[in-house]
Amino acid sequence: MVVRTSGVSPAALSPPGRRRLGWWTRAAVRAGLATAGLSRGLRFGAGSIIGGRVTLALDRQALRRLATGRRVVLVSGTNGKTTTSHLVAAAVRTAGPVAHNAGGSNMADGAVAALAEAPDAEYAVLEVDELHVAAVAQAVDPAVVVLLNLTRDQLDRATEVGAIASALGRALAQHPGTVVVANADDPMVVSAATAAPGATRTVWVAAGASWLGDATTCPRCGCTLTFTAFHWECECGLARPTPDWWIDGSKACSADAVLPLDIQLPGQVNVSNATMALAAAQAVGVPVDRAASALREVDVVAGRYAVVHRGSQDLRLLLAKNPAGWAGMSSMLSEPRPLLIIINAREADGRDTSWLWDVNFEQFTCRQVVASGERAADLGVRLSYAGLEHQTVPDPLAALATLPPGQVDVVANYTAFHQFRRRLGREQKVAR
Amino acid sequence: MSPDSTVAIGLLLPDVLGTYSDTGNATILAQRLRWRGIPAEIVTITARDTPPTSCAVYLLGGGEDTAQLFAADWLRRHPELRLAMEASAVTLAVCAGLQVLGQSMTDTRGKHYPGLELLDITTAPGRQRSVGEVISTCAIPGVGSLTGFENHRGITTLGPGTTALGRVVTGTGNGTTEPGTRQRGEGVLTERVIGTYLHGPVLARNPALADHILQKITGQSLAPLELPDQAALRATYL
Asked: Using one digit for the tens of pLDDT, what is the confidence trace for A284-340?
């Protein structure tokens, strides 16, 4: 049963069409949940991917059926999907129960698992990989799609950024009733969100762009874009739209509201993520002041931003997997603490480590730095050319032992981050 | 070398052909000179700039399809740069940067676009993208095996008399055999141009190739450099 909350606009409370799952879908869901439980019991992992895959293998329409009648928010983009989806989920939870793929399993299988685990939730907030938005949107008919940013990531797996933007544009054109919450400062996102003019309603957020290395030329025509302090445009007509939401210091502003965010998550990039989350929550009918209060409660997101006490060290855990992610994180790394960097190059990371050369490691010259992970040597060579004296210790726990007691910043890319957290095991989280 | 003996490294169009982090090649050349006591500066040349013709070396990197056509057009609009590349400088061109130096490029719809016509090569799209590790045996004496990561759909055909940079051991490379041989080629090697599909960046993974370029532009034989992690990096891929 959905508990109705007073103060929520009627649009948010339109009664969900009751999901009538056929016996076969119910059996497929039970099989998936049982598999996920077994996977967790055997400590293979959270089980959401394998569980979702089992359900989808038994019923290929499971995602569509499980989503029927829910108000679904999809969160996509290259960086900040997991964090922003946590922020949106916290805000929407003030209006009712939410199904959420909180662990970051962001393809169709992860979405199926999240919906199966919360069968009665009226809302769903789903982080979706930017290459899977079209397929997931087709199944769930989202109320809102959030597009954070589009930069280069895993070029070996994905196609080029411009092609991803075009594919997203085509996908959005299939959903004229969907509200798109889009970053007005990212030319790639604007190109995607305006591909079907008039069909979709777009809420533009001036969320900023910490790295424009992939967007200096126009995604439409290939000419060089002209950037000024608060605007960008191309001679072909593509230009920054007038924002509906913008950021003033740590406040989110719209024509009707000025909201102090005061979030616990660090860095300007998370002020941007929080503003995108506010706009998304409002689009599904959550009052913005209530949404803003909920955002303040979020402190750790799937292990990121956590501080873990281990022996004599306090480890600040951060995840960065591409140049834009590192650029967004630089304000969180301004203190000259010892720094452990862990880099892998597995399929989920992208096999090509070239991206390390577009990270501004030169900014860390005054720190003690250790290069670690399965591609520690690639990183070590990059650090030498950046002029950083460093040690190279491929095993991350052995690398920690070379650093002094006290606070240590740990930045890892995707699989390296998850491996490291598993190895830290149940070590205690301390207050921030 | 410029009059004050600082070696100018011209990084061409990093704003257009910067997608695959090949700009790292400029950092590598500059640092390897400085570590040997030779002053070096990186001259960043964007699409808005008029390119200087006095650089000792010019670098081009990989980029996306629309950006590549823009780059080819930009290069053709700067004939003085082409003259420098032909007569005085050494050029390292990677992936899309290699293709734009050729006679022509063909897109997936079969439309032809002119290149800078500095190299006797043509590029057309293959049936699928070639993505993954490449190992080749470099044609430059003393350089040895080249390692890199390729990510392209181009099939590059070399004109008669044009030499490949290396012979493919694993991976795709040019996707064609070297003229007059049955050897699968990777990249292009002329007197003044080194072209390759290898990212990594290629000079990070292959310091001997970097030093070959530096010896060519300085005219000096350079002392060996031992970089920590370099041997481990090459062992990862070779």
From this structure: 999 999 999 999 999 988 888 899 999 999 999 999 989 988 988 888 898 999 999
At residue A154, the pLDDT reads: 63
ipTM surpasses cut 0.90: yes
Give the residue from B143, B179, B138, B137 showing the smallest Cα distance to B158. B179
Chain A contact for B151 (CB, 8 A cutoff): yes
Helix (H, G, I), strand (E, B) or coil at A218: coil
Query: Hey, which residues does B166 pair with through a beta bridge?
Result: B138, B186
Q: Decide if B178 is inside a domain.
A: yes
Residue B60's domain comprises 7-237
Number of domains present in the structure of chain B: 1
Cross-chain Cβ contact A377/B229 below 8 Å: yes
What single string gives the DSSP state of each residue in A142-157?
-SEEEE-------TTT
Contact A81, A304 (CB under 8 A): no
CATH for A307-424, among 1.10.287.1490, 3.40.50.2000, 3.90.190.20, 3.90.1150.10?
3.90.190.20
Q: Does A8 touch chain B (CB under 8 A)?
A: no
Option in A162, A352, A353 nearest B64 (CB): A162
Asked, for residue B119, whether it belongs to a domain, the answer is yes
Exposure string for B102-114, b = 16+ CB within 10 A, e = fewer: bbebeeeeeeeee
Q: Does A230 touch chain B (CB under 8 A)?
A: no
Alpha carbons within 13 A on the beta-carbon side of A297? 12
CATH 3.40.1190.10 fits A62-296, yes or no: yes
Q: What residues does each domain of chain A span?
A: 22-60, 62-296, 307-424
For the record, the structure tokens of A290 come out as 């209530």
pLDDT for the residue B179: 85
